[in-house]
Structures are given as C-alpha cells and as structure tokens.
Amino acid sequence: MSFAQSEANYDETKVPKFTLPDALVTFSGNNISDHVQWEADRRFEIFQFFERQVYGKVPGRLDEYSFKLIEESNDAYGGKARRKQVAISLKKNKKSITYNMLIYLPKGNPTAPVFLGYNFYGNHTVTSDPKVPLTKAWVPNNESFGIKDNKATEGSRGVRQHRWAIEKMLDNGFGLATIYYGEVDPDKNDFSDGVHELFYTEDQTKPKTNEWGSIAGWAFGLSKAMDYLENDGNISNVVVFGHSRLGKAALWAGATDKRFAGVISNNSGCGGAALSKRKFGETVGKINTAFPHWFADSFLKYNDNEKTLPVDQHQLLALIAPRPLYVASAFDDRWADPKGEFLSAHYASMVYELYEKEGIATEQIPEVNQPLQHTVAYHVRTGKHDVTDYDWEQYITWAKAFIQ
Ligand code: GCU
C-alpha cells in the first residue's frame, strides 16, 4: 500500500456532509421531467462540464485514420475462435501513431457481440497464444513479469490471462477486442508522445488547460477502434470494458461515443464511477497529485475542494443512459470506494428511469457476491482490486440479457 493509500480516509463516519448535484435539475435551476428535456437541456451541459473541466477536450479532428488487417486465422483457441489483428493508424499534422487491436471471435455464429477493453501490459499478456506479437511500445517496468528497461519480453506472455476469461466469452458467444493502452498514450507524466502530440501546433509541448489528459486520450483511442469494429461484418455490438484507470477511460468513452452498446466499469474508483464528494479512499487531490497527466489541468482546482464541484460522477454514469451500464466493485478495494461506486450507480438510475429502463432502485449496497442486474447493474465481489472470472461470469450473464 502506498503512503497516499495508507493515510486516506476509510471511516464512514468521517465522510463529509455534502449535497449531491441533482442530475435532473439544470445548472440554472430548471427541473427535468422527461428524456426529451434531459437530452435537450441537461445532458449537454453535464457533458460539457466533464469535457472541459474534468477529462479535457479533444483539440480538433484527425487529418486521416486507417485500419490494416495484419494477421488473421480461423484456428485460434483450439479451433474455437477466429483471430484478427488490426493495426489502427491515426494521422495529424504529418505525424502518426499506430496501435494494435487483437480480436478473438467465436466461430459458432456469423456475427457476435464483443467486449472491447484496454490491457495494461500488451496484447501478448492477455493470452498464451504465440501468434500475438510483443508490443514494441513503452511498458511500465515490472519485476515479477521480467520487464525492465520499459520493454516487453517473452517472459510477460500470458501473465495477465487470469484477468480475461477469453474461453468463457467464446463459449458464451462473445468475442474480445483488446488494445495495449500504452500504444495510444504511454502512461507517464509527459505529453511528448502518444496521441496528444499529434495535435500540437508548433512549439506546443502539452495540451492547453481545458484540453485532454491521458484518460480522454485513451477514450479517443477506443472510439477510433470502434470505427473499425462497427464495420467488421463479424461483429454485431460492442460493449466497452475497463478496469481501474482503464475503467475511467471506458466510462468516458461510453459517455462521448453513443455507438458503444454498453459500458462496464470494473473497480474504476476515483474519477471513474465513485462519487468524488465522499472523499473516501482516493480523492481528487490525491489522484491529481499522483497522476497529474490523467485529467485536464482545469480539474486541478478541485483538489481538496470537491464541495465546489458542480457535478459528481453519478452524472458521468447518467451520460451513458439509456444504454446498459455495469458498475462493479471489490470488497477489499476500499481505495476505489465500493459504496461510492454503488451510490453513483443508484443516483444515475433516475436518468435511466426517464427512458423507462430499470436501474438500481435501492439505496442499500447489496451483500458481497449478490449482483443486482438490470439495465444498470452493480455487484461487489469478495477480494481485492482485480478482474476475476467471477466478474466476467456476471458481465456475460448481464450482457446476454441486456445487450441487443
Ligand atoms: C492507482 C490509482 C487509481 C487507479 C489504479 C489502477 O491505484 O490511484 O485511481 O484506478 O491505480 O489503475 O490500478
């Protein structure tokens, strides 16, 4: 546990008293009573706030982007799956980046829904499939994976398989599309590389105050991946998934891009699903200090000043309505504030109700391993900050019921 984690507040009695901004009252005080009004008068102002003051704006459009199928096989996972590897290139100002998407699709049906999610250490870490090349991008050092000098090694092949229940997905008719997030934007506090750099004007070295941080950069990368996926004739629907910092990116991707048919936030915590105003576990000040590159600089003014935030994260979740949304926590992951994640799903549900979609009606967090699954779903499982087979089993059951 880091120092910041050990000295955080984990005492429910020390959660400050706060008033949660109402999803259904506009900044100027008007009540919203149906989904037409929500979309016309409220959704956009909330969206704009998150875009300018939290994650930061994408500063323009790409000049060009393209996709290249670099490898394909009909014989992955013992013949159960087809595999595709697609290189996605983004171009702007005569500069470009390329990132790789690994796709497995079940062979039973001509089309299948897929989960799209970033991985933390390279596509070769999610599977032992030898046909997946090592990432050439910068990766964080990790002694237990044998990664030093920020370069992926053969020794890290398959080290994250336990976080991706690929065979379970395939056996249930789902596919997986995954990308190493560091190929879109390396996760370090320097903006000299990755997707941000493409957009700089001469002499610029970092985004402007209300422009995108890394989370918005990763969300943008997911949207561009969606441009490929929606045109792949073997894919019916895409549910965007992410764990932890990548769960924050998945939520923002779901809010910014309505083509995602559903969104799954796994232990996304502060700046993801958890309510900021509770200041339980990780806080805005702590996250902006430890990871100054994740959010827009305009978000810094809320460091230890959450009470002045005119929004909270339940409103980020509400931006995804009426599309299916799953928020999941882990009981021992107090840093991510399971109760704050639950309450956020509960308070977002009033927007789902405008569309006559069932959300999380109860204010009482369920017992561990007792999922509540409606269009908005929630569970808190036993165990720590991680993605487990249990999590995937719930996501698959829910996606079968709610993703068309
Ligand atoms: C840190 C960070 C969290 C983040 C997590 C992760 O703990 O403080 O905000 O979610 O890393 O990405 O694993």
TrEMBL record:
<feature type="domain" description="4-O-methyl-glucuronoyl methylesterase-like">
    <location>
        <begin position="207"/>
        <end position="353"/>
    </location>
</feature>
<keyword id="KW-0719">Serine esterase</keyword>
<dbReference type="InterPro" id="IPR029058">
    <property type="entry name" value="AB_hydrolase_fold"/>
</dbReference>
<dbReference type="InterPro" id="IPR054579">
    <property type="entry name" value="GCE-like_dom"/>
</dbReference>
<keyword id="KW-0732">Signal</keyword>
<dbReference type="Pfam" id="PF22244">
    <property type="entry name" value="GCE_fung"/>
</dbReference>
<protein>
    <submittedName>
        <fullName>Acetylxylan esterase</fullName>
    </submittedName>
</protein>
<keyword id="KW-0378">Hydrolase</keyword>
<dbReference type="GO" id="GO:0052689">
    <property type="term" value="F:carboxylic ester hydrolase activity"/>
</dbReference>
